[in-house]
Structures are given as structure tokens and as C-alpha cells.
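INFO  loader      accepted 1 record
INFO  loader      residues=339
INFO  predictor   begin
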Amino acid sequence: MPQSPAISYSDAGVNIDEANRAVARIKRLVRKTFSPNVLTGIGSFGAAYRLKGLKEPVLISSADGVGTKLMVAIMANRHNTIGEDLVNHCVNDIMVQGAEPLFFLDYFATGKLSAVVTAQVVEGIARGCERNGCALIGGETAEMPGLYADGEYDLAGFIVGAVERKQLLTGATIKPGDALLAFPSNGLHTNGYSLARKLMFETAGYKVDSVVAELKATVGEELLRVHRSYAPELRALKKAKLLKGAAHITGGGITENTPRMLPDGTAVEINTSSWTIPPVFELMRQIGNVPVDDYRRTFNLGVGMIVAVANAKKALSLTPGAWQIGHVVASKRKRVVYK
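INFO  predictor   done
INFO  writer      dumping C-alpha cells
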């Protein structure tokens, strides 16, 4: 048999040198997020984090992605905010159960690795972690030619937080009469992008750089607004012992997410006149003549978080920008009623 030419890993599409350049850029970003509880540096086979200060700690964990918002980031060639979206989404998901975020890990997979793009993505992750008081202690960067087209990538995040068992937020104390406060979203956040892309790009024919008068921005700028973290508001309400339950308004909208914090026998009445739905949602509804139920179950409609409190006046004084969106009622049937 004739000897075949030498074939290296790079011939198969994997560039180890580019991966090393990406890691070198990432290390500088990651170190800024470390706290004294991080016991290992980047490069270890596993990350070590010291859990201290809690008498009976309960760990709360979550894993998530940012859906097809990634496709908008790739279309717009803007990669430095998508990681912050990911962190803030995960932080909100564990804080609604009373947990404080401890550490975060990311998974970044691509067809052909670009050290520059990878560093931009991790820049957003590190910024999100730093702002939320969460250590970025590890992750995985995978180059998989043949699975992803050149220029494409996928992103996922994994977060762990902790809470004292007695302070675990379960919603068990929520009762009829409790007020519901809402915190505004910053656009679509990370949900509804499959429908949004179909409406904006396929139906309306917009490009990412199309300027839309109703939005006072380009389509790309609007769709890439950063998913808000509600850590400051939740911490303030928790410290004041006003927080009885919380719901992160993600996929499923108000309709599907609000009942997740409710005990049996209760429901919520939502006052639809208590806020103005942002223009981007109304524009998409008009473009696709989207049915009301789909509209409410796909998009957050300007509401990123809903919390149940016993003292609305005091809670509102601690959370600028919030408003009372409704209240809890007794019900054994429908869980969400729009008034």
C-alpha cells in the first residue's frame, strides 16, 4: 500500500493554535470575575469553588441558552453582548427561587474557531458575571467542523447559586390580595426570536441594518438589546423581607410563567392598561396579524419580571421603574386572567 501524505488535526478543520490564542484572550477576561472563593485558575480539569457563610445551604442550578437570538448576532456581526444575555437570563432564573449566584460556566461551540469572535462572546459573559457578582470559573470551547457552518456558533450557560433553606423562595406564602409588581424588559430579551425573525426578516423583508421609524433604531439594534438582570430589585425586596414569589417572564410570556410561582387555589389578574407595550411588539403583531393568545405566550410584551408582595407601596419605593400590574386572586380554574 502506498504511503499516504501526512494528515494533521488542522487538515481535519481543527486549529489548536487558534484555540490557544482564544484561551489567552479569555483568561484576561475571566480573572476579573473571580472572588476569594474561587480556588482554581483557568486551565484546571475542573473548577473549585468554596461554599461558605451559610448554615443550611441549598444549591440552585440552571442551564440555558439564548435561542435563535444567536442568528441575529451572527447576521449583525455583533458578538460582545450575547454572552451578557446568557448570564442575565440564568441569574434571573435562580434568583426567583431566592438564590444568590455563585459561579457560572459556559459552553461555546463553533465550526471554525475565531479567537476574536470567541473573545467577544466571552467578553459579554465576563461582563455579565462581574455585574451580577458571579464568578466565571470554567467552560468549554469546542471546534467542530462539519457540525456548524463557518461563522456559526452555539452558546449555553450553566449557573449555580445558593440560599439558606429557610429563605428558599417557593411562593407558598402567596395568598389572594397580594399585589403583583412588574419590572420592565429591555426588548425581547432572549425569547420569541424564531417568530421575530420570521416576521421581521421574511414577512416584512427588513435587514439587520434597516432603520425602522417606529423603533427609532435599526432592526439589529432592537433585536440585540441586552436581556436585563433583575438582581438589584430582587435583592432589595428580599432584604426588606417583602418578596413572596417571583416569576421570570421568558418563553411562554406572562401567561405561562406567572403561574409557576403560585400555590394551588390561586391565580393572577393582570391589568393590561397598567403599562404601554413597547413599539417592537406592536410592530410585529401588526406585521403578522399575530393572534392575541400567541402574542401573549410568545413575547414578554415589555414585562421582564413579576413579583408577588404583601406591601405594594413599600416595595415600589425600593424598586424604581416598577409598577403594580395586578393582584393575586382565589381560583381553582384559570391561572391568569387579563383584565
